[in-house]
Amino acid sequence: MSELKNAVNWQNAQKLGDILPDVWKELQVKVDRMIEQIGDKSPHVAKEDGIYDDMRVDWWTSGFWPGILWIMHEMTGKEHYKEAAWEWDGKFEQKSIQDHNFHHDVGFQYLPTAVIKHKLTGDTDGLRRGLQAANFLAGRFNMAGNFLRAWNQDKHGWAIVDSTMNLSILFWAAETTGDPRFEHIGRAHADTVVEKFIREDGSVNHILSFDPQTGELIESLGGQGFGPQSAWSRGASWALHGLANVYRFTGDAKYLKAAQRVANYFLACLPEDGVAHWDFRADESLDNEPRDTSAATCAASGLIELAAFLPPSEGAVYRNAAERTLLSLTQKYATWDKPEHQAILLEGTGHKPAGQNVNVSLIYGDYYYVEALAKLLGWKQRIF
Ligand code: GLY
């Protein structure tokens, strides 16, 4: 069936489950075309022309495109996805060595590439690169303040909520090597997220600055949100999904409760169609504020995770919310009727305060859309 015909039919669906198998079929057609269109590029952002850029390969987003391919490979068994995904972890490892540019987001890069590659194929280079990334991340831990420091340069005391999503590589390394140091560090940073990043009402800070000598919390910085006290939706989605992952690894209920607290605030702020605005406190009325489909997909995937850990009566609210969001994204924000468009979703927001990448397609929005749909279709592997 043509993409356009399907997309039109999908407009009438009331429930994602009614169209999910067809959506998944079309997604394969879409990703097959993306393989041709994207070629060797490392996609990050596609603007109005629908052409994905070619970002430097050591950028934090370089794992998401191959991550889509690895999920597709595992879901379908088709070799061409594996072939297209295979080289990526080696490419960005080399670039990071060459430019001395390993950073706090190695989890985003190596989990959906090296780690899953090792899990699915036994590849020993994947294992080595994954453990190297985990070692590097563990080395960023500051015992005074219990945080993984963000960025390089001179920001010794800065920590960001995004790092919650990188913690899975530490827990994976603990399981893989039997060395509990990785888990201790993962838990310690997660505790800081729970105690310092998440506010009373369930909204989250993006950047916190600590005194790197004493560990004392100095201040909240605005970062990619509207301001220091605002509620940047992608930051909330990193916390929600990330803490659900920490619960999966540790079984410690405090992380589950914290993920629920963030989820409850997130859900309370959503507009009718379930697709988040870029910051829930950008303005008194959000009507004219841009959406962020990447926050929507990452949160949806995290909500599915969360729902699975709870009794069905409690989890249903999260699962239903995830499905509502994914249905809206499928019906109103996707590029099914634009075969020349190289991304899956529209209307992502990268960094609005900096005027960067507003109302664009973002490769991590595409990744978490695929991840969430795969989970709903029974995919059992967990990358993050
Ligand atoms: N700092 C990563 C992000 O844009 O969410």
What order do the helices and strands come in, and which of them pair?
Elements: H1 3-10, H2 16-38, E1 45-46, H3 64-76, H4 79-85, H5 88-98, H6 106-121, H7 124-138, E2 141-142, E3 147-148, E4 158-160, H8 168-177, H9 181-197, E5 207-210, E6 217-221, H10 233-250, H11 253-269, H12 293-309, H13 312-332, E7 348-351, E8 356-362, H14 363-376
Antiparallel strand pairs: 1-8, 2-3, 4-5, 5-6, 7-8
Helix pairs in contact: 3-4, 3-6, 3-14, 5-6, 6-7, 8-9, 9-10, 10-11, 10-12, 11-12, 12-13, 12-14
Residues 162, 224, 234 line the site of glycine.
Protein name: Unsaturated chondroitin disaccharide hydrolase
EC number: 3.2.1.180
Family: Belongs to the glycosyl hydrolase 88 family.
Written overview of the protein:
By secondary structure, the chain is mainly alpha-helical. It has a single domain (3-376), classed as Glycosyltransferase. Helices cover 54% and strands 8% of the residues. It is built from 14 helices and 8 strands. It has helices at residues 3-10, 16-38, 64-76, 79-85, 88-98, 106-121, 124-138, 168-177, 181-197, 233-250, 253-269, 293-309, 312-332, 363-376, and strands spanning 45-46, 141-142, 147-148, 158-160, 207-210, 217-221, 348-351, 356-362. The strands form 3 sheets. A 3-stranded antiparallel sheet has the order 1-8-7. A hairpin with a 4-residue loop joins strand 2 (141-142) and strand 3 (147-148). Helix 10 (233-250) runs parallel beside helix 12. The model has no long low-confidence stretch (mean pLDDT 96). Residues 162, 224, 234 line the site of glycine (GLY). Keywords: Glycosidase, Hydrolase. Its EC number is 3.2.1.180. GO terms for molecular function: unsaturated chondroitin disaccharide hydrolase activity.
